[in-house]
Amino acid sequence: MKQEDLYDGLEVHFEAKAEFGDSEELTADNFIFPNEEDYMDFGEETEEWDIAKEKPGLWENIRKKKEREGKKYRPAKPGDKDRPDPEAWKRAQSLWQQTMAEYEEGQMQREQLMKMHHQLMEIEEYLDGIEFEDWTKDMISKSEIYIQNIYDFVEARKDSEAYAAKYKGRTVTLNKPFKTPGGPKKSAVYVKNDKGNVVMVRFGDPNMKIKKNIPERRKSFRARHNCSNPGPKWKARYWSCKAW
Predict the structure, then answer these.
(1) Burial, 65: exposed, middle or buried (Cβ in 10 Å; 0-12, 13-18, 19+)?
(2) Which CA distances in Å does 48 have to 34, 40, 62?
(3) How many CB atoms lie within 10 A of CB 82?
(4) Domain check: are 31 and 58 in the same one?
(5) Residues 212 and 121 in one domain
(6) How far is Cα of residue 224 from the mean position of the Cα atoms in its chain?
């Protein structure tokens, strides 16, 4: 058998699973915050998706996962299929630390504001019958100024680019694939499925190189997988065809 024929046969064997790649519901265990350099432009119309806004429960689970496991937390062992390579693991650790720091940075202030809000709500019904002493009147006047300043500060920033940038760790780009060097597939992409839910689609055999620069190989792959009709975006075959 010619070497080229052998390569073609191996491609058929390994890439035949492209259509049956993984489409996963998002969990704290499988969610990935891609680094900007890991994204790949496939020419698709993209959309920014804020996980904290759209899936607050999932975001909270991601945030709490490491805190919950604490000293019992153990990464996958070398040799496990989901074990990231050292560089991928360093990037994941760095991103986790950044995400936690961004969340904790303003947590005390948020808790203080919510405490004040709840306390005011608790005494609201008694205010009409209260005769305030001079020192309390002074404190109320000062508090009104402080609260107004805080309100103006938040209003001015809640829709700004600076606000969005501060919480960039909570946002991923839909329809824009990214590399997953930690496996189990070569790449992944966040998309909306037929129900409108965001899912992760994994695709591409990490052990095979794409040879779309060789016209015969590209034509053969696209014919085998019917890439003229690649199916919906929430299936791996769609993205494997786009890669070729």
Answers:
(1) middle
(2) 13, 15, 19
(3) 12
(4) yes
(5) no
(6) 32
Instruction: State residue 39's pLDDT score.
Output: 92
Parent domain of 9:
3-75+84-97+170-243
**Final residue of a domain: which of 166, 196, 218?**
166
Statement to judge: residues 9 and 127 lie in one domain: no
Q: Model-level pTM greater than 0.90?
A: no
The per-residue pLDDT string of the chain (244 residues; one tens digit each, 9 = 90 and over) reads 445 444 455 554 444 444 446 688 888 778 888 888 889 999 899 999 988 778 877 777 776 765 666 555 343 444 455 445 566 556 655 655 665 565 556 677 878 888 888 888 888 888 888 888 999 999 999 999 988 888 887 777 665 555 544 445 578 899 999 998 777 788 999 999 998 899 999 988 877 777 777 888 888 888 888 888 989 999 999 998 888 7
CA distance 177 to 183: 14
For residues 110 and 174, membership in a common domain is answered with no
21 lies in the same domain as 71: yes
69 and 182 fall within a common domain: yes
Pair 51, 61: CB distance under 8 Å: no
Are residues 10 and 93 located together in one domain of the fold? yes
Domains of the chain: total = 2
